[in-house]
Automatic annotation (TrEMBL):
It comes from the Eukaryota. This is Uncharacterized protein.
């Protein structure tokens, strides 16, 4: 048999959301994603990115 204190466990909740800063981009606006690095087109036509682009030195980025 359970007591009322055991049956009333506190519910877990998600933390409150922080204020979001959302950028709005218009249809003809330019939006640069330089920190994502270049898009690589593979031989089979698929696209990928260099995952560690933000960690690479400038000389490594120049050699890509």
């Amino acid at each position: 048999m359970t007591t009322t204190s055991e049956s009333k466990k506190p519910l877990l909740a998600l933390p409150a959301t922080a204020e979001e800063t959302v950028q709005t981009v218009g249809v003809n606006d330019t939006f640069k994603l330089k920190e994502l690095g270049p898009v690589v087109i593979n031989e089979d036509g698929t696209m990928s990115r260099i995952n560690n682009w933000h960690e690479m030195a400038d000389i490594e980025k120049a050699n890509v």
